[in-house]
Amino acid sequence: MSASISQSAGKITTHILQKMKNNKEKIAVLTAYDYSMAKLLDRTGIEVVLVGDSAANVMAGHKTTLPMTLEQMIYHAASVVKGVQKALVVVDLPFGSYQANSKEALYSAVRIMKESGADAVKLEGGREIIESVERIISAGIPVLGHLGLTPQSINKFGTYTVRATDPKEAQQLLEDATLLEEKGCFGIVLEKIPATLGAKVTQSVHIPTIGIGAGNNVDGQVLVLHDMLGITQQFSPRFLRRYANLSADIMSAVKQYINDVKSASFPNENEQY
Ligand code: KIV
After folding, report:
1. Is there a single domain that holds both residue 73 and residue 191?
2. Residue 56: CB within 6 Å of ligand 1?
3. How far apart are CA 232 and CA 242, in angstroms?
């Protein structure tokens, strides 16, 4: 069997992701927010590491992603970039850093690229942010779109339920996907939409689609690392598959350490000078 496009590639670029879609090779994406986790992820051969503004939830304990600042995203992104050699590193533009106008959007994207060394940025939205998308891409910065459930707009939606279930919203999403492709996005994240719509968008656009709760007929999948590793416990949407139960492992290790300290069995003779 010949090596996959991803395995035989050096550094993953947006062009490699396009080749993967053309070749029907699925794209794996996970989030990371720090150097150590990013380094582990990169060693697995994952294609894309997303420095998501979900850092607001899993790193900072906020209820929504809205409080994340540009400085905080740059801090997380720069830490991740140091741990990654192969994967494409994509960074979320945080809420408020690109919605006002395209000039500010470009300024924010340039700061992320210059100060973190990341490879691309991600913006939430369709037609309403299209000027910003266009301006960032015209400056040579690759952009990943994000449609469907866009958590930065939670106060407009009022709920995190599945999006685009009615035909009008589904049609708008399809049009937005086409628009993002026309303006030069290298891919689109589709979050929490019906699987049939995920498949339809994936067939309609030529660029890769990355689903999170968008079914299996998309070009790749993304999950939040802390959710799929079972570090977070309360968050259990239907689309989330847990691949580990690290919260239990971490707590058991820490309890064992506490016992060892209290019983004076740590450190032993070999663990001292
Ligand atoms: O912030 C994030 O982690 C994301 C993914 C869930 C797609 O945008």
Report:
1. yes
2. no
3. 10
User: Both 188 and 253 in a single domain?
Assistant: no
Answer yes or no: do 86 and 113 share one domain: yes
Alpha helices, DSSP H only, in the chain?
5-8, 14-22, 35-44, 55-58, 70-83, 102-116, 130-138, 154-157, 167-182, 195-204, 225-228, 246-262
| Same domain? 176 vs 270 | no
Domain of 249 in residue numbering reads as 245-273
pLDDT for res 112: 98
pLDDT along the chain (273 residues), means of 10: 87 98 98 98 98 98 97 98 98 97 98 98 98 98 98 94 97 98 98 98 98 98 98 94 98 98 98 97
CATH number at residue 23: 3.20.20.60
- The pair of structure tokens assigned to 6 is 């991803």
Question: Is residue 225 domain-shared with residue 257, that is, in the same domain?
Answer: no
Ligand 1, atom nearest to 53 Cα: 1
Q: How many domains does the chain have?
A: 2
pLDDT computed for residue 1 by the predictor: 55
Give the list of residues 6+ apart from residue 133 with CB closer than 8 angstroms, or none. 105, 123, 143, 145, 180, 183, 184, 185
Predicted TM-score (pTM) of the model is 0.97
181: annotated active-site residue: no
CB of 212 closer than 6 A to ligand 1?
A: yes
Annotated catalytic residue, options 169, 191, 269, 271:
191
Q: Give the residue whose CA is nearest to atom 5 of ligand 1.
A: 52
